[in-house]
Structure formats: structure tokens, C-alpha cells
Input
Amino acid sequence: MTPSSIIRFFLILASLTDSGWAQGRAADYERAATLRERLSGKVFRDRVEPQWIGESNAFWYHVRTGPETHAYVVVDPAVPEQRPLFDHAELAATLGATIGKSLTADQLPFRRLDVADDLSTITFHLVEGSFQYTLPKGPLTQVPPPEGAAANGTTAKILPAPREARRRGPSTEIAFHNQTEDTLRLYWLGDVDAPTPYGRIEPGKRLEQHTYGGHVWMVKDVSASIVGVFEATDRPGLAVIDGSWNPSLARIGKDAAVIATAAIAAPRKPILPTSSGVRRSSMIM
Output
């Protein structure tokens, strides 16, 4: 074999090898790119975020046990022991009877859970209100709404006019309940002069929106008149839109008078509330 033939042989070999490696790398990248999609909804019990109990070394945590199921577990290294934080089946039955819903032990609809330092009680928050449960077997009692709650059941802070958020608190949720005969539109006021649309609320329906404490939300009717402005509290809250919101000229701005005049000019006729609703977001636990 001549020297030129040897050179040509190695050049051909190198080109074939590079091509093979390139194809292999592309396949690897493709598999890696689809890994999250292929594993989505198939990996559970993979995360522990300890919530420390008082000054002890014990903690509790919330764990996903399936695509739509979850549980609450307490761990005490001093025993050592890992056990359910409470009797899930017992609480599901008691709570379901209280709020008139069928609940299962592995799908308790808590929006937030607080545990007493001595593990004597748990306090949890739902769209229907807040409840306290004495461990281990009850009783279950409803926590009164916060002072200043509106007559129509609204627990979110009612604002007299649109404005932007003045703080960003913890992750929370507002349930917007449309008790008018109109389809309403929901807006987040990240920029008061350019509200961000976040969906519609059909008459009699409820939309549960994830947010942060201090963030401000505005609701308009089909004629673009404002029918409610609400600030999220740190705990999950309810915003009832029934035509009772009263606008104010408190906001200083080019469109303040227009906003107030338009809202006053189009009062909404309330309708009976309904228990049906639309869920927008998942649990924040």
C-alpha cells in the first residue's frame, strides 16, 4: 500500500467515525431532552421538605404518593418513628360531612396546614373556610373568619380602586366566586396601566387562582366595567363578586374618574350561589 493510499484510508476511517459519534450524541441528547416528559407523573415520594415542630428534632412533611394523591407524615428521630401526622381517613369523613363534600383520605384539599408545637392540633385552610382539628381523633371546629370580613363572605382584602402590589408575601390562593349573571374576566395588576388577563369566570362559577400575599387582582364584566378589586392575604381567601363592590376615586391617575364612573354605571344583578366551580391551579402545600 502506497503512502497516499494509507492517508486516504485513515481519512475515510476518520470521517466514518465522526459520523457515528455525531449520530450517537444526537440520540443521547434526544433521550435526555425527553427524560422529564417520560418521567412526568411517574416519580413519587421523592421529596422531603421538613417542617420543624417547635424546638424539637421532630418534623412533618407533605408527600405526593401518586399522580393526584398525597399524605402528611410526621418523623420523630428520638423514637425513632415515622407515622401519619393524623388519621387521614377519619379526618376525610369528618370534614366531608361538615362541608357537604365527598372526600377521600389521600386527596384532602388543604390549601395550607399549620401544626401546633405540641402536636395537639392542626389548623388547615380550604376554600370553604378554616378549620382546627384536635389530634388524634377530633373534634373538628371551624375557625371564625378574620375580623373585618365582608358580609357576603369575602375574606380577601377589598380595595376601593385598582393599584399595584405593595409587597410580595408567601404563596397563597384566592377563590373568585361569580354571583352575577355576567361572564367575568380576571386580571392581575402587576402593572396597573397594563393589567394581565388571567381567564374568565362564568356566572355562578368559582375560579381558584394561585397568587402571593399582597398581590392585587381586578375583575371586569363583559362591558369592561370593574366589578371588584381584591388584594390577596397571606392565607387562602375568598373573593365574592355580587355587585356590592363600591369603587372610589382614591386612586390618583389619568383614568381614575373613568374607572369609577364606569363601575357605578353598570350594577350587576346577583344570582343564587352555586357549589360548582372551575379549578385553575393545584395545591400550594
